[in-house]
Write a structure and sequence with these properties.
Layout (H helix, E strand, L loop, with lengths): L9 E4 L5 H13 L4 E4 L5 E3 L2 H5 E3 L3 H16 L7 H22 L16 E2 L5 E2 L2 E3 H6 L7 H4 L7 H10 L7 H7 L2 E3 L20 H4 L6 E3 H7 L5 H38 L1 H9 L4
Parallel strand pairs: 1-2, 2-8
Antiparallel strand pairs: 3-9, 4-7, 5-6
Helix pairs in contact: 1-7, 3-4
């Protein structure tokens, strides 16, 4: 990134950048007063395989731990409410784990889990055992405010641009006046909308996947993750990007032809230099 701040915004092409590294650099520039525009956010990469980005394994003893906590609470209040309180908590914990395993198990791709009950190990297609699996992003989608989730949040964004925006916001003190002003300097887009399709774009070497990630490591794109969790504009963005690339290719051909014509004109001008000198001597410059 540039060391000095400019009045014009910096347009960053998000393709091939790592999400966290790009977000940290952009957040620092925003706090320093620089305006930043990030385009093609759907092509930002996340290190690790798509399965890792979407899945996190929860230990099997979670239900037992919650059940044990319920029994301890029941034992401490046995004199007041009896031991039935702890058994109810244990039953509630087991039911929650059963619902999670049944709900998340049907979403997994490429593996056939048997319907795992609470405290039971599921078998994959290869025959190996796997603990109760929860989709990480789906787990994030399930986080909600108990009082008024539609008003109080948290709000779960599916679009790639909003995912990047929220990632950057987490690195900025957005609840202060300085952080609010910094976030107002940021613009994020899927694809390359006008007028940024005619502006020069830059990359951030410190955040490029080919430079920061070891060759051969797995990675995934935000576009696929967003589409899997409910983003419904992937085909629209792809179609608009195809149209933009066709126009850009035609513009590049015209520009190349004009440059070749200019080079040819300069070569012919050097051949006519003696004639131009004689004409200049007679006042025909």
């Amino acid at each position: 990134m540039q060391a000095t701040q400019s009045a014009a915004p910096i347009v960053i092409d998000g393709k091939g950048h790592l999400l966290g590294r790009l977000a940290s650099i952009v957040a620092k520039q925003l706090l320093n007063g620089q305006k930043v525009v990030v385009v093609r956010t759907e092509l930002i990469n996340v290190s690790g395989s798509f399965f890792r980005a979407k899945v996190s394994c929860a230990p099997l003893h979670t239900a037992a731990r919650e059940a044990g906590r319920g029994r301890r609470n029941g034992d401490s209040r046995e004199d007041e409410r009896g031991s039935a309180h702890g058994s109810q908590l244990a039953y509630g914990a087991s039911r929650r784990m059963q619902r999670n395993s049944e709900g998340f198990g049907s979403v997994l791709e490429g593996s056939r889990h048997s319907t795992a009950q609470s405290g039971r190990v599921g078998m994959t297609a290869s025959g190996s055992t796997r603990s109760t699996t929860q989709l990480r992003y789906h787990e994030f989608l399930n986080k909600r405010h108990l009082v008024n989730p539609k008003k109080s949040g948290p709000f779960h964004h599916r679009a790639p641009s909003r995912i990047l925006y929220r990632t950057i916001r987490g690195m900025v003190p957005h609840k202060t006046a300085r952080g609010t002003a910094a976030m107002e300097r940021l613009k994020v887009f899927e694809g390359v909308p006008p007028p940024y399709d005619r502006k020069k774009k830059v990359v951030v070497p410190q955040a490029l996947r080919v430079l920061r990630l070891k060759p051969g490591r797995k990675y995934c794109t935000i576009k696929r993750l967003s589409h899997e969790v409910g983003w419904s504009y992937r085909d629209v963005v792809d179609r608009l990007e195809e149209k933009r690339k066709v126009k850009a290719a035609a513009f590049y051909e015209r520009k190349s032809a004009a440059q070749k014509a200019q080079v040819a004109a300069l070569k012919s001008a050097t051949k006519a230099a003696p004639i131009s000198e004689k004409l200049a001597a007679f006042g025909y410059a």
